[in-house]
Specification:
Blueprint: E1 2-6, H1 11-18, E2 29-35, H2 40-57, E3 60-66, H3 68-81, E4 87-89, H4 93-96, H5 98-103, H6 111-114, H7 123-127, E5 130-133, E6 138-141, E7 144-150, E8 152-156, H8 157-162, H9 174-191, E9 197-200, H10 208-220, H11 237-255, H12 270-276, E10 280-285, H13 289-298, H14 305-318, E11 319-322, E12 335-344, H15 351-361, H16 364-372, E13 379-380, H17 383-386, H18 389-392, H19 398-406, E14 409-410, H20 420-426, H21 428-437, H22 443-458
Parallel strand pairs: 2-3, 2-4, 9-10, 12-14
Antiparallel strand pairs: 1-3, 4-12, 5-6, 7-12, 7-13, 8-10, 8-11
Helix pairs in contact: 1-2, 2-16, 10-11, 11-21, 11-22, 13-14, 21-22
Length: 459
């Protein structure tokens, strides 16, 4: 953990001049917990926001930065103990806790802050923070949509060329796409005596990559799991049939020997590692962090000039970020987006200032540098930031991410039924795939088991 604590002078006069309601007492404090950035630029941008907020309000920001897992674990413990910070932002809140906390009344309603900002925020991103409170029996905005991620295809262009193919040879259709990589590309490389797999295909039950990747396949087949009221609809005939096809297709990549056998046990970093080691040609990943590693390396003065030059060549020439192929029905893929949420806790000691801090953070001049500090790992939630040259310019990876978002996004099931955070944590999706691949049961039986377990958890 890293703590940052400071106090601006001239508090009351600066606060009044900045237009904030009420003169802040010199020692007034707001407690803020954030996930520590993956890149230094994220933390630097956050510290700049903290400094500006303190100078504008005279309020001391007691900021703590935690590693990803520590951040959510500590937050859950603090909420259970009734001693949460005023503001929390952990990059796994959305997957694990935000919906449940809102349902249980553990979060402050922030509609008064978000309503005036609605026109500035991408509608789908904003929709994921409209959550049900079981105490009030109605939905309201209980979180701030800070940044978002989605699934991308990443492949080695030079390995594709080594196999004897050009990028223009890659099919646009669903079946043809996977057949191309698994049969033609892998086959050509194997013919050269190389033990290389075409696809890094996460299947480990303990990996969030697996459920994100699998649900992308389910989305491709239009398999609807819940409706907007949170009711499970996966057992409806059309949805069940679509889910069977998704399980069959996801399993088939392993069954045809197109992914390393170890992928059934992969954790989240393992598909990245296999790609960087060039034992796979392609992988799907929920951020462009694979390419961004090489961007980071090419500017890393701790590396040799030769290493930096190779990283630059990898980023601009050898590695490609791409969209998923069209859906099996021929329509363009609508991408599954995960919106990373910040919250103000209902039991926070200074939640009023917590709201003010997040209102300040959500201003474009503050939020944009924070999101861009991740060098493309996270995408903006605001309309104007998404149009920035950072995304629409010449960068070969970010411009693809921009196109994916403009093509349209859909939310995860847990937005409508918070119990799907447990469904994902248990990874019923990966279990179904592994039942087919390892236990040799039919996709139909695997989906029957999946539906039964989902109903037990979230019905």
């Amino acid at each position: 953990m890293k703590s940052v604590r400071s106090l601006a002078a001239g508090a009351a006069l600066v606060a009044i001049a900045a237009g904030w309601s009420g003169a802040a007492l010199a020692q007034e404090t707001v407690t803020v917990w954030f996930t520590k950035g993956f890149y230094k630029g994220e933390d630097d941008a956050l510290l700049a926001v903290v400094d500006k907020f303190q100078k504008a309000t005279g309020v001391k920001v007691d900021l703590s930065l935690y590693a990803t897992e520590d951040c959510v674990t500590k937050s859950v413990g603090a909420v259970q103990a009734g001693t949460p910070p005023d503001v929390g932002f952990c990059t796994t809140y959305d997957f694990r806790t935000t919906g449940q906390w809102a349902f249980e009344g553990k979060l402050e309603d922030v509609s008064d802050v978000l309503e005036p900002l609605k026109a500035q925020i991408q509608p789908q991103a904003l929709a994921t923070t409209l959550l049900m409170n079981d105490k009030t029996k109605k939905k309201a905005y209980y979180a701030f949509p800070v940044q978002q991620q989605m699934m991308h295809i990443t492949y080695w262009k030079d390995m594709l060329e080594e196999a004897g193919f050009k990028e223009s040879d890659i099919p646009k259709g669903w079946d043809g796409y996977w057949d191309f990589w698994c049969d033609k590309v892998q086959g050509a490389l194997r013919a050269k005596g190389k033990r290389i797999y075409a696809v890094g295909h996460p299947m480990g039950v303990a990996a969030s990559d697996t459920f994100y990747s699998f649900l992308t396949f389910a989305n491709a087949f239009n398999a609807k799991v819940v409706d907007e009221n949170g009711k499970i609809v996966l057992d409806e005939p059309a949805n069940k049939a679509a889910m069977v096809k998704a399980v069959k297709d996801y399993s088939n990549i392993a069954q045809r020997g197109c992914t390393p056998p170890s992928s059934v046990n992969w954790l989240d970093p393992d598909n990245n590692v296999a790609f960087h080691n060039r034992t796979t040609v392609l992988t799907h990943n929920a951020t462009i962090s694979i390419a961004a590693k090489h961007l980071d390396d090419m500017n890393n003065q701790a590396l040799t000039q030769e290493q930096r030059d190779q990283a630059k060549k990898n980023y601009y020439d050898n590695i490609r970020t791409a969209e998923f192929p069209n859906k099996p029905d021929g329509s363009p893929m609508t991408n599954l987006a995960a919106v990373k949420t910040a919250v103000v806790f209902a039991d926070g000691k200074n939640k009023k200032r917590g709201k003010e801090f997040m209102a300040f953070m959500m201003k474009d001049e503050n939020l944009r540098p924070f999101v861009e500090g991740s060098v493309g790992r996270w995408f903006p939630t605001t309309i104007e930031a998404a149009k920035a040259e950072f995304w629409t310019g010449a960068d070969p990876h970010r411009k693809i991410v921009y196109k994916q978002y403009t093509d349209g996004t859909v939310p995860f099931q847990f937005v409508y039924n918070y119990k799907f955070t447990t469904v994902n944590a248990e990874n019923v999706w990966a279990k179904a795939v592994n039942r087919v691949v390892q236990d040799k049961i039919s996709p139909e039986q695997a989906v029957d088991e999946m539906i039964a377990r989902i109903k037990q958890i979230a019905g």
